[in-house]
Each structure stands twice: as C-alpha cells, then as structure tokens.
Write a structure and sequence with these properties.
Layout: H1 26-43
C-alpha cells in the first residue's frame, strides 16, 4: 500500500431546508385554514 492511502475519508453533506426553514410559514397556515373552511362549508 502506498503512504497516501492512510488519509481519512471526509464526506461533506449539504443540509437542504425546504421552505426556508422557520421563515415564511404563515402562507401554509393561511392555505390550510382556507382549505379547511372550504371543506367544512361543503359538508354543511
């Protein structure tokens, strides 16, 4: 074996955050409320 094969293997993983993490979640709540109200009105 050569002397260069004793180097540790480094794996870099990129963290992917969908939707911007904790920011900008109000539109999801608003859409959920609208859909729930529409479904409730349809069943009324």
């Amino acid at each position: 074996m050569s002397t260069g094969s004793n180097r540790p293997i480094i794996i870099k993983r990129k963290k992917v955050i969908a939707g911007g993490g904790h920011h900008g979640g109000a539109w999801k709540v608003a859409i959920c409320v609208v859909l729930f109200a529409t479904a409730f009105a349809a069943l009324w």
